[in-house]
Amino acid sequence: MSPVVVVLVVLGGLSEAAGRILPLVARRSGVSRPLVFGLLLTGTVVESAVIALWPLTAWTLAQLTLSAPVSGVAALTWTPGQAAPMLLGAVIAFPLLGPLLHLLLLMGVGAGLVGPLAATTGAGWWVAAGCVALAGVGLAAVVETVRRVVARIGVAGARELTV
Prior knowledge:
By secondary structure, the chain is an all-alpha fold. Helices cover 80% and strands 0% of the residues.
């Protein structure tokens, strides 16, 4: 990935993390700044990794669906033109600013990945679209599961400290 793409992906991850963490901080006024910074940093790393892995995961799924996988072709990665709308989608991810608009923008970004994926793998457009959608939903499900597990561990740890 080029440095511009890395910056766009990290900014997108930061925005996604802030959109998830800041509402929690607003509800709990006693949260320490180091804890918020740690959560924001961790969230940025996780969200940036998910954003960066989306095209690679879709490319891998497309390779698995082909009867004769294409060899010698570089894996699909973000380009600045594809990553910039992802950053806009991350900015719109703030909960009260429009989850439906965020979802539509992510679908648009995913549709933008379908053409290059179909071209690099030789898969049909619909197969590529299915791989992009499956990769996006799968990565989102994994991250949501990890969030819920971490939240449960945090609640259980807080209960043990108060007892």
